[in-house]
Amino acid sequence: MPHPRTALVAAAVLAVAGLSACAGGGPAAAPTGAAVAPVPSLVGSPTASGGSVDGVSASAAPGTPTTATASTPAGAAGTPSSRPGCLGGTVDVTFPGGGDQVRSVCVHVGTRIRITLDARPGAPWRAVVTSAPQVVALLDDTVGAGAVDATARAVAAGTAVLSADTRQHLGAPAEVTTHWQLDVTVVP
To answer: Over the stretch 94-150, which tens digit does the pLDDT of each residue have?
Structure first.
């Protein structure tokens, strides 16, 4: 019978190796700054028929949005061009969405990300910005009545941060009252 500590160490090594494989699509280590936790732990497990997800949904085919479902990851499991848990098609993100807020998502190149930031009384949203337009490009960003509707597309593998702030206009200068951020990992 193996020693309990040996079994624990072996389980930890297997877990780290599994996360590294998920992060890079294979046995290689994840690039610096890449998220290593697979998306299913954050937003639920994608299924062929879709599943319920708080704050994020994805349609299985581009241009065919659905409500609160996850897409089937593109590619066959285990191939270098795929990463289990990464979404394709169109991903809808709403803030506040209810339940645990989604802070990160993994998507495939070509995936559309639709963002809805609901109005906050007395503190309108500013436009959504991207930290890396060469990875996730903003296609449109409409700010109206304190809310934001924006669309972005994953254009290349890498990482980017989509973010926006609300500003309360009670005095000068306006203070940031809410910060929304979505860390996006894009894979082929």
So the answer is: 998 766 677 899 999 999 999 999 988 888 899 999 999 999 999 999 988 889 999
Chain-centroid distance, C-alpha 177: 23
| 43: enclosing H helix or E strand | helix 40-43
CA angle 74-162-109, nearest 5°? 25
The beta-carbon contacts of 131-134 under 8 Å, at least 24 apart in sequence, are: 131/160, 131/161, 131/162, 131/163, 132/158, 132/159, 132/160, 132/161, 133/160, 134/158
Report the distance separating Cα 106 and Cα 104, nearest Å: 7
Question: What is the CATH T-level fold of the domain 37-187, as seen in this structure?
Answer: Immunoglobulin-like (2.60.40)
Q: Please report where in the chains the tokens 């969405």 appear, as a residue.
A: 97
Q: Where are the domains of the chain?
A: 37-187
SS3 state of residue 44? coil
Residue of higher predicted confidence among 83 and 34: 83
Exposed / middle / buried, residue 88 (Cβ in 10 Å: 0-12, 13-18, 19+): buried
Which tokens belong to 184? 């996006």
136: left (phi over 0), alpha (psi -120 to 50) or beta: beta
